[in-house]
Amino acid sequence: MNLLIWNCRGALSPNFRNIVDDYVQLYSPAILIVMETKVSGERAKQITDLLPFNGVICSNNIGLSGGLWILWDSTQVDISELAHTEQEIHAMVSTNAPVQNWLLTAVYASPRYAERKLL
Fold first, then answer.
1. Torsions phi, psi of 95, nearest 5?
2. Could you give the CA distance from residue 93 to residue 4 in angstroms, rounded to a whole number?
3. pLDDT at position 117, please?
């Protein structure tokens, strides 16, 4: 099982979807974590619906920074969200591998101290 973590620095780029498609073709990730998307809410859903993953958890960005997504291929893994904030997502990952369940935590700490200290 492959896990890909990418600090994309903005998911609104016209090339974002093509780059994700290329990464999926090259690495076949079961899980893709995208950080610093700078996109949340309905716009994040519109973008993630176009990506080649059928599971998604999105956290909201803080102003014009942050944003954290976990996307996965449900034929390879099952992910259950445990909790999330604007800076972190905690989830339980289930697979058919020898280690069947494990905890996944994705963190994108705010560059602003006032928000980061909440972690």
1. -135, 180
2. 15
3. 72
Global pTM value: 0.90
In the chain the first and final C-alpha atoms are separated, in Å, by 29
CATH class of the domain at 2-116: alpha beta
As beta bridge partners, residue 95 has none
Q: How far apart are CA 20 and CA 29, in angstroms?
A: 10
On whether the CB atoms of residues 61 and 78 are closer than 8 A, the answer is no
Query: How far apart are alpha carbons 56 and 72 in whole angstroms?
Result: 6
**Positions in the chain whose pLDDT score sits under 50:** none
Q: Which one-letter DSSP state was computed for residue 21? A: H
CA pseudo-torsion sign 77, 80, 85, 88:
negative
Residues across the chain:
119
pLDDT for 118 equals: 72
Q: Tens of pLDDT along 48-59?
A: 999 999 999 999
